[in-house]
Amino acid sequence: MNDTSSNDYKIAAVDRALLVLEALADKPGQGVTSLSKSMGLTKSIVFRLLQTLEDRGFVFRDPEQAVYSLGYRIGVLGERVGRDGSLLFAARPVMDMLRDRTSENVNLVIREGLRSLVLATRSGHHSIRLFAQAGRNGPLHAGGGSLCILAYCDESVINAVLGSPLEAFTPYTITDPEKLRQTLSRIRTNGHNIALNDLDDGAFSVAAPIIGANGEVIAAISVAGAMVRFDEERRETYIRAAMDAAAEISSKLSLHRIETAALPVAS
Predict the structure, then answer these.
(1) What is the pTM of this model?
(2) Axis-axis angle for helices 155-162, 144-151 (nearest 10)
(3) Which DSSP letter does residue 30 get?
(4) How many C-beta neighbours within 10 Å does residue 163 have?
(5) CATH code assigned to 80-253
(6) Which residue ranges make up each domain of the chain?
């Protein structure tokens, strides 16, 4: 049996350097003394870390005020990853775990204008073909993940969506704007969405919102499958699983490494 923990492979200097970058991202313009106090490290160690990062372009030193901020290399790397790229990197392993935990389909959905976009999917262990396919656009007024995202959009986006023709995909699709507003309010209150038969007849979707580094909802992750398997026990299990997955992804995207994500307050 191997008792080696992940901490045995951690390189302390690298870990500290990353903490410096996160501290400067959270509060730019700090000096050695300020960083030393907030990180609980000696000034000597902090100075050497900053010197190394500055040499590589990851931090910039203001020579007049002797304070540091993030350097141009951070911008270069961030530009290469992009918003959707960083979301995918953070979400992929969580999506795998959510699929294995529930055995159902897992979808990662974002907003693209007044439409939804399925950024990635994981096929469940049960054979079922759903509307959600990677790279496919869909409506914002139907579907577990789509409605979950719409619930946290600016009022202008909500008004634009509800003011447009609302297509009925099944007999259960809500196409009445006032009823949709009530649904969106309920989603914000509950912190998750359960959609039944509204986009795929005979299918369910349980979705939870994902929060980006800016504190706003940028995506939703959902568990989806056939209604015949959606009993009361699975309902509660899938709600908890989707919310746990969304919180884990949100934590990965947060500068503060939060354990659980606080949803934005409804306006």
Answers:
(1) 0.69
(2) 130
(3) B
(4) 10
(5) 3.30.450.40
(6) 6-70, 80-253
